[in-house]
Task: inverse folding
């Protein structure tokens, strides 16, 4: 049996955009997701290239970075600057526009992360 959250299931508002389902605030003003500790994985950072749902454009995806939200944002900014491209952080996953898997692998290994290439 599915249970609903006590706050409802609001995830988008035409006034404020994406909403946090926990505190019902706009994502920009949400403090509950930034306060949560990052999910502990197996300690391995996985880098893959994806094109699904992006109109055929390649995006390099970095998963498995067990960091706080602010530290993850800072690392993402550093990775994007090193590749000279844009990107974003969504749900603890860093997305960098373009195919930069080799460059990101070298950068993260130099910073002491255990890195693996995932996918084909």
Result:
């Amino acid at each position: 049996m599915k249970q609903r959250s006590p706050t409802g299931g609001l995830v988008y508002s035409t006034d404020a955009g994406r909403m946090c389902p926990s505190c019902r605030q706009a994502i920009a003003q949400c403090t509950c997701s930034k306060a949560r500790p990052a999910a502990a994985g197996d300690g391995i950072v996985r880098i893959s290239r994806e094109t699904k749902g992006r109109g055929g454009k390649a995006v390099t995806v970095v998963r498995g970075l067990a960091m706080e939200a602010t530290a993850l944002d800072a690392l993402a900014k550093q990775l994007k600057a090193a590749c000279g491209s844009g990107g974003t952080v969504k749900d603890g996953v860093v997305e960098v526009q373009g195919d930069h898997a080799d460059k990101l692998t070298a950068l993260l290994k130099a910073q002491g992360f255990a890195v693996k290439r995932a996918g084909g």
